Structure formats: C-alpha cells, structure tokens
Amino acid sequence: MAVETPSRVTPGTSPTAAKAGTGQPWKERWGGLFFVAPFLLLFVLFMLWPIVSGLWNSFFNTSLAGVKQEFLGLQNWQDLFGDPAVWSSLKNTLVFTAMSTPPLVIIALIMALLANRKGLLGWLLRFSYFAPFVLPATVVTLIWVWIYQPGFGLVNGLLTAGGFAEIDWLNTENRAMLAVVITTVWWTVGFNFLLYLAALQGIPAQVYEAAQIDGANGRQQLFRITLPLLSRTTGLIVVLQLVASLKIFDQIYLMTNGGPNYATRPIIQYIYESGFTSYRIGYASAISYLFFAIIVIVAVAQFKLFSGRGEAE
Amino acid sequence: MTTATLPAATKSSRPVRWTFPKAASAVGAVILAVVWLVPLLWALDTSLKPEPETTRAPITWLPEAPTADAYRSVIDQGDLIRWFFNSTIVSVLVTTLTLVVSVLAAYGFSRTKFPGRKVLFGLIIAGILVPPQVLIVPLFQEMTGLGLVDTYWGMVLPQVVAPVMVFVLKKFFDGISRDYEDAARVDGASRRRIVWSVMVPMSRPILVAVSIFTFIGAWNNFLWPFIVTTDPSMMTIPVGLANVQGSYGLRYAQIMASAVLGGLPLLIVYALFQRHVVRGVGDAGIKG
C-alpha cells in the first residue's frame, strides 16, 4: 500500500509535531475530540442508543405505539426459549448459511483462478462475475422469481426441454431454500471473487518463475503454491461469508416471504414480523439480542481461530 | 501497490503460448461468464417482448418483434422516476456524509491524542460487529419519536454510521508518513486544513473505492428504507420495486422492464469504475 509514501513513519518527528500545534494546553489536550465528535454523535444516536433501548425494551411489554409499558422482567426471554417459531426460523437461517457458504467460497475461488488475466477477456470476465453484486435485492428477486416461474420460466423451460419434470421451486417446501441459495450464489459470489482476485494478484510472479525453473507443472503450481498462499484469504472470506449468510433476509422475504409453510423464514424475518406485524416490540428486541449474540460468537470464534493460525495483520 | 506491477512486467517479456490447459481454462471461464450473464439477458429479453409472448410454453428466446411498450407503460405508471430521484438523493447524502465524518474520525484517531481515545476507538471497532438488522425495531421507535419516519434524513442518518469505514481509513492514515503534515504545519496550516489538503489527496484511491462501495450499498439498501418509509412517494428504487410484482399483476414484460431500469444505473456505474472497484476490494478487504 505504498501510495506515494516514500518514507515510513519516523518516530522521531512526531513529538515535535504535536508540540508545534498550539500553545493552549486545553486545545492541545482535547482538540482531537473535535475530529471524532461528528461520527461519535451519530454513533451514539443511531447505534449505541438503539442497542441500549432495545435491551431495555426486552424487559417490557411494549407495543409499537409505545405508550403503555408494563414491566415483564424476563418474561420475553422465557417466551423466546419456548417459542417454536424462534427455533425453526433460527434453524432455517443456519440451514441457509450451511448451504450457501461452501459454494460462495469455492465458486469464488474458481472464478478468481479463471479470471486472473489481462486484456479485454479479463475485463469481460470480471464484469460478468461481479455485475450481479451491484444490483438491488429487489431487482435480483424480480428476475429470479420470473426465472423460477412454473410453465414459462427459464429454469422450468430448460427442465422440460431436457425431458425432466417441472418443479414449482418457490412453492415446494424442500426446494424453496435451494432456489434461494442458487439466487444468492449468483447475486453475491462476485464480492468473494474480487477478494480472491486481489489476493491472487498479490502473489509475486517470481514465485511461479522459481517453481517453473524447478520443473513444477501447472497442477503442482496450483496445489503447492497458489492454494496454500491463499489460505489466509480463504479464512477471511469464510468469516465474512458466514456472518453475511446469517444475516439473510432480503432475498427470502422478497422471493418466498418465508414460505411455503414457513419453511424458509429466517430469524430476521421473525424479528421483523414480531415487531412490525404483531407489534410486540419487547419480544422482537429479545429475539434481536439472541441473534446478535450468535453473530458475535461466530465472528469472535472465527477471528480467534484464524488469528491463532498466523499473523492476522 | 508495488507488487501489482511485477506480474505485468514479467508477463510481457514472455509471450503467451496456448497450451491445452490454458485454452481449457479460457473456455471454462467464458462458459461460467455466460451462465452468470444469462439471467440478466433473460430479463432484458423478456422486457422487450410483447406481453402475450412472455407466457408462451415452450419458452421462446428472442422477441419476434422487440418493443419498448413495457418500458413505456412502466414509466407512465408513475412512481419509478420519483423512486430514482429519492434513491439518488439518499445515496448521495449517505456517501457524502459517511466520507466526511469517517475521514474526520479516522484522522482524529490516527493523529491526535485526547483522553479516552483508545476506549472510544475500541467501542467503535466493536460496532463493526453490530448487524444493522438487530437495530431495526428500536431504531424505528427512535425515528418515530424524532418525527423522521418517511423523511430522507430518517433513511440517511442511520446509514452514515459505518464503523468499518473509520477502521479502514484509520489504518490507511496510519501508513501515511507524518513528514507531509509536518511540512504543512511548518507552513502554518491548521490541523483541519491538513486533513483536507494533505490526508485526503494522499488517500484518493482508497477514498474513491470507499465512496463507490458506500454508494452501491446505500442505493441497494432494502431493509431500513423499507421499514422507515410507508409513503410510496418517499420510497427508494429497491423498496418501490418490492411492490411491483403485486401492482403489475402477471405482466412479466413490465416487471422485467422495471427490473432492468432499476438495475441499469449501477451496472453503468460499475462498468465505468470497474478498475477502482476491483482495487478497492483488495485494499479494504485484504488490508482491513
């Protein structure tokens, strides 16, 4: 990342710089806070405050109108553990994560290996692989609901042309999740692809030249050099992907609305429904916290796992 | 980006010989690209058909007589232009404000000292872990209290809080030598001046990348604008389009025309700025 920075930070110069600022000790001591203040204000208002008020709400029987509050203690939390809808939507979220993460990592890697080339072909490949990622969820789902359409949709059109039976993808319980996963892979694999591509382009060409001199063939170069050198990137991508997949909501809400028969409803949709359809603010907040805890555990565990494996810069 | 130039230099010295594995990987790459483009092309294809032709079984590929009727009726029905306008305002505001507050905060954490600095930075870093989705319920209550439901500010302000941006920019600033600032300071520049005329110009590439991603993210954000808007005239493109399926009924050419119109602006932005996007993911993702 040496962008026009010929010399690195030289520790000797900084103390004099700090002193050269102004003569006022007060400004010297607190002046820096002014730079941080605008962000901090927004951070407190729109992140910290909702986190705190959400926790507070989870101990009350609050409706969206928010007028009458009745203290419930841990009632919402007890309800949550006895509510099958919480567990089934949590299960759906985990199933989606388990189904979507492997293809989103593996296909991204294959794409990066294939598209790591210069010229027009490289540009076209990068464009095609990443293009879906820049589309809004609604555009993606409008297109894919149409593609999955029974009768005259593209997928079923191809299935029947090939002599197979039609599938009503989005209305069949054990097919709907697969359909959502396919759509998600198509939509978001481009981001992981770019992460892999950047890592591939960071491998110095000399490494391969040395390997060639030593007589390593293409396959050996791939498995002995490229893939091992990408392992840190893979760790990063897996963490980012797990957390992203756990946050699934948009595609499912827009494609199946959680159906058929709640078979695809993710936990965030249940939070949304508890809060905005059933108007149980306190209960929705409690489920939010459960979900938040899961995200934190996954992120921290993964971070520990791969920062212990090597130097996590 | 010192390493990026190396492969280019060595590759040009050695002409590419087409061997079987090389040809096979090129063919595979193209096939995969076609598979990835087909849904987009199918949407475009459908949008250019007259309505009756879209529901033919077995499916037909190219429209017999391409027509822009679907586009005309989608635009005539009204709200799409308004949603475009809203999306533009919201995305530009989110991008500008995010950049300004994040650059200032990153500079503050990278270059100044004040009591509690480390604790505050730690708190903000912890904010990276907070999924915006868990905040929707209390945030909506807060917006109701502030009277910001169905307003641009209601959509914009929560999206401006991007702790990851502060983190990425602070790391980048940390890598910039202090010599430049010191020189500017000797010339009498204030710290505020230094941020805008030293740090910002020196971080151009990462700021461009960060802006593009913030813009795409804001343009595409669905959940929060969906929750905080109820008035159709205040909706952004993604939120407005969510109701399209219902309101157009089963007119697939029109649905696809609206999808194409909704997706086109960002595809164009991406095609124009691909270089920055690709490099930006590398810089922010790998280094961050």
From TrEMBL, chain A:
<feature type="transmembrane region" description="Helical">
    <location>
        <begin position="127"/>
        <end position="147"/>
    </location>
</feature>
<keyword id="KW-0472">Membrane</keyword>
<feature type="domain" description="ABC transmembrane type-1">
    <location>
        <begin position="90"/>
        <end position="302"/>
    </location>
</feature>
<keyword id="KW-0813">Transport</keyword>
<feature type="transmembrane region" description="Helical">
    <location>
        <begin position="176"/>
        <end position="198"/>
    </location>
</feature>
<keyword id="KW-0812">Transmembrane</keyword>
<feature type="transmembrane region" description="Helical">
    <location>
        <begin position="94"/>
        <end position="115"/>
    </location>
</feature>
<dbReference type="InterPro" id="IPR035906">
    <property type="entry name" value="MetI-like_sf"/>
</dbReference>
<dbReference type="InterPro" id="IPR000515">
    <property type="entry name" value="MetI-like"/>
</dbReference>
<feature type="region of interest" description="Disordered">
    <location>
        <begin position="1"/>
        <end position="23"/>
    </location>
</feature>
<protein>
    <submittedName>
        <fullName>Carbohydrate ABC transporter membrane protein 1 (CUT1 family)</fullName>
    </submittedName>
</protein>
<feature type="transmembrane region" description="Helical">
    <location>
        <begin position="281"/>
        <end position="301"/>
    </location>
</feature>
<feature type="compositionally biased region" description="Polar residues">
    <location>
        <begin position="7"/>
        <end position="16"/>
    </location>
</feature>
<keyword id="KW-1003">Cell membrane</keyword>
<dbReference type="InterPro" id="IPR051393">
    <property type="entry name" value="ABC_transporter_permease"/>
</dbReference>
<dbReference type="Pfam" id="PF00528">
    <property type="entry name" value="BPD_transp_1"/>
</dbReference>
<feature type="transmembrane region" description="Helical">
    <location>
        <begin position="33"/>
        <end position="52"/>
    </location>
</feature>
<keyword id="KW-1133">Transmembrane helix</keyword>
<comment type="similarity">
    <text>Belongs to the binding-protein-dependent transport system permease family.</text>
</comment>
From TrEMBL, chain B:
<keyword id="KW-1133">Transmembrane helix</keyword>
<feature type="transmembrane region" description="Helical">
    <location>
        <begin position="119"/>
        <end position="140"/>
    </location>
</feature>
<feature type="domain" description="ABC transmembrane type-1">
    <location>
        <begin position="84"/>
        <end position="273"/>
    </location>
</feature>
<feature type="transmembrane region" description="Helical">
    <location>
        <begin position="255"/>
        <end position="273"/>
    </location>
</feature>
<keyword id="KW-0472">Membrane</keyword>
<feature type="transmembrane region" description="Helical">
    <location>
        <begin position="194"/>
        <end position="216"/>
    </location>
</feature>
<protein>
    <submittedName>
        <fullName>Carbohydrate ABC transporter membrane protein 2 (CUT1 family)</fullName>
    </submittedName>
</protein>
<dbReference type="InterPro" id="IPR000515">
    <property type="entry name" value="MetI-like"/>
</dbReference>
<feature type="transmembrane region" description="Helical">
    <location>
        <begin position="23"/>
        <end position="44"/>
    </location>
</feature>
<keyword id="KW-1003">Cell membrane</keyword>
<feature type="transmembrane region" description="Helical">
    <location>
        <begin position="152"/>
        <end position="173"/>
    </location>
</feature>
<keyword id="KW-0813">Transport</keyword>
<keyword id="KW-0812">Transmembrane</keyword>
<dbReference type="InterPro" id="IPR035906">
    <property type="entry name" value="MetI-like_sf"/>
</dbReference>
<comment type="similarity">
    <text>Belongs to the binding-protein-dependent transport system permease family.</text>
</comment>
<dbReference type="Pfam" id="PF00528">
    <property type="entry name" value="BPD_transp_1"/>
</dbReference>
<feature type="transmembrane region" description="Helical">
    <location>
        <begin position="83"/>
        <end position="107"/>
    </location>
</feature>
